[in-house]
Specification:
The complex is a heterodimer of chains A (about 250) and B (about 290).
Chain A (H helix, E strand, L loop, with lengths): L1 E10 L2 E11 L4 E6 L5 H8 L7 E6 L2 E2 L5 H7 L1 E4 L11 H8 L1 H5 L4 H14 L1 H5 L10 H13 L5 E5 L7 H18 L2 E5 L3 H7 L2 E6 L2 E7 H6 L1 H8 L3 H6 L1
Parallel strand pairs in A: 3-8, 3-9, 6-7, 7-8
Antiparallel strand pairs in A: 1-2, 1-4, 4-5, 9-10
Helix pairs in contact in A: 3-7
Chain B lengths: L2 H33 L6 H18 L4 H24 L7 H23 L15 E3 L2 E3 L1 H23 L1 H11 L1 H6 L4 H27 L5 H15 L6 H20 L5 H15 L14
Helix pairs in contact in B: 1-5, 1-6, 1-8, 1-9, 1-10, 2-3, 2-4, 2-8, 2-9, 3-8, 5-6, 5-8, 6-8, 9-10, 9-11, 10-11
The chains are: A alpha/beta (about 250), B mainly alpha (about 290).
């Protein structure tokens, strides 16, 4: 469904993505792992049109989307849950969700249908319903993350990009959010591209994974293989450290 | 006249001038919130409102409501054109250079207005007569009532738009977080254009309803624009109650100062307030620290 071929992205003169090629099949969860600054978030931002690629192609469901502005990419069916939540702090939880469906409102979709989806989000994250009239800025980090995911889902994306959904959250909250991501895949068949620092948790959930280092894909494969891969274990999963210490 | 009578009179005229400042200030705040620039051409849009009204009433002899609507529509079109020609083409410009461009734009608009309408001061007839109405010990002109009514109407419509329509909410979302707004599919540049249109229509309304009281000429925009800017600063550049209160406060203080101290200090009072606010409470009188949890 998504084919990214040889993209190169720059921040000014910094070459952030070097000939990156990845692909996603329908209903897959694919994890991007790697150290800070490896280019994981840059891939998502290039897909979303925030930092457009200077060369290469991005094909989504047969449509070339690499030079579209962010709003058109959402229209094409790719929604991003950005790093650090980025909810609209001065607006209520309900308004945040409503804005997630902005393009559907513009397209003249019936309000009842959109309201149904809002109810569905409240079902996924009951805590959001309790706080629907509260300003988004007053929510806890975990609740903001739920809101950010809910807001992206309101656009009914075919592909969901998740950027560090577990960042800075308590383990229990992380479990809750990962459970919802699993549920999205099982119940709704949402295709998900997941960026995570927590490589182990990400690979456990994912079907496949790509390991990035300094803007390049260095390893790719099935998630279970990556979990067993000694190099991945050493660099990103913290295994073997013990042996090194004991030596 | 007793002092208390005088003060009542100053309050009435101060509140009506303040309402005008509030409308202009809202224009500043709305554009600031969507673009982070201070549009110093805002005053010229106020002037254009009055001038277009003059054109439609005195020259084309349109009936008053139609003339007012046409003047607001023409000025809104001018505001949209201004955005298209000055802000939109510059992709990577910093807010500072855009602000300077708006100053340039204001000089240009003023120059064109001078060529079209001349340097004379023009009068616009009052909307419904000039017979003063006695309220207690103060007198009030029918035009003052028009100012209060239309300002209230404009503010109420503004509030409804920003709180209850999806486009209004999208504009607020852009003000809070442009990147996230783009990520939910909001076309940020379109919202910027809308903010110019709304600011132009508010500003032109201010220019139209004040013109019968103060007359109008090609250069009224400078002072009215600065006063509106002052109101927005007092209100912490909020596109809501803060700026409205800021405008009213400024109008009343100006009027009291002019009446009780000396009318020569009228403008100075506004700018002293502006400086004091910027020195002591740059977040505005009513600005509060943002509630934020991470």
């Amino acid at each position: 469904m998504l084919k990214v071929k040889n993209i190169n992205t720059y921040y000014g003169k910094v070459h952030a993505l070097k000939n990156v090629s990845i692909h996603l099949n329908e209903k897959e969860i694919v994890a991007l792992i790697g150290a800070n600054g490896a280019g994981k978030s840059t891939i998502l931002n290039t897909l979303s049109g925030i930092t457009p690629a200077r060369s290469g192609s991005i094909e989504f469901n047969g449509e070339l989307v690499q030079s579209l502005p962010p709003d058109r990419i959402v229209k094409a069916g790719i929604s991003q849950v950005p790093e650090g939540r980025q909810v609209f702090k001065g607006l209520s939880v309900a308004d945040n969700l409503e804005l997630g469906a902005y393009l559907r409102f513009c397209a003249g979709e019936s309000k009842e249908k959109i309201r149904q989806d809002t109810r569905h989000i409240y079902e996924l994250f009951p805590r959001l319903e309790e706080r629907r009239k509260q300003m988004a800025g007053t929510l806890s980090g975990g609740e903001q993350q739920m809101l950010s995911i809910g807001r992206a889902l309101m656009a009914r994306p075919k592909l969901l990009l998740l950027d560090e959904p577990s960042m800075g959250l308590a383990p229990l909250v992380v479990q809750e959010i990962f459970a919802v991501i699993e549920r999205l895949r099982v119940q709704e068949g949402t295709t998900i591209l997941l960026v995570e620092q927590n490589a182990k948790a990400a690979l456990k959930m994912a079907d496949r994974g790509y390991v990035l280092e300094t803007g390049k894909v260095i390893i790719e494969g099935n998630a279970s293989d990556l979990l067993e891969n000694p190099e991945v274990q050493r660099a990103y999963l913290g295994k073997e450290k013990k042996e090194i210490w004991e030596r | 006249m007793e002092l208390s009578d005088q003060i009542a009179q100053y309050l009435v005229s101060g509140l009506s001038t303040g309402a005008i400042y509030a409308l202009i200030g809202l224009g500043f705040a709305i554009i600031y919130n969507s673009t982070e620039i201070i549009n110093f051409a805002q005053g010229e849009l106020v002037m254009l409102g009055g001038m277009f009204a003059l054109f439609f009433i005195n020259f084309l002899h349109l009936p008053l409501p139609l003339a007012v609507l046409s003047a607001v529509a023409s000025t809104t079109a001018a505001g949209v054109l201004f955005e298209r020609l000055t802000i939109r083409p510059l992709k990577a410009a910093t807010p500072l250079s855009l602000i300077i461009i708006t100053i340039g734009g204001s000089i240009l608009i003023r120059g064109i207005a001078m060529l079209v309408w001349g340097k004379d001061t023009h009068a616009i007839p009052a909307f419904s007569g000039t017979e003063p109405i006695l309220i207690g010990t103060a007198t009030i002109l029918p035009q003052h009532l028009w100012i209060f009514a239309l300002t209230l109407l404009a503010i109420a419509m503004n509030k409804l738009f920003f709180n209850y329509t999806i486009t209004g909410k999208a504009m607020r979302a852009c003000a809070v977080n442009k990147r996230a707004a783009g990520l939910v599919g909001i076309d940020v540049r379109k919202m910027v254009l809308y903010s110019f249109a709304i600011s132009a229509s508010l500003g032109s309304l201010a220019g139209i309803i004040v013109a019968p009281l103060t007359m109008t000429s090609y250069d009224v925009g400078i002072m009215l624009g600065l006063k509106g800017f002052c109101a927005a600063i007092i209100g912490g550049l909020s596109a809501g109650a803060g700026t409205v209160l800021g405008g009213l406060l400024l109008g009343v203080l100006e009027s009291l100062g002019a009446g009780l101290i000396s009318s020569g200090y009228k403008d100075a009072i506004a700018f002293i307030i502006l400086l004091l606010i910027l020195f002591i409470r740059p977040q505005g009188l009513f600005g509060k620290a943002e509630t934020e949890r991470v």
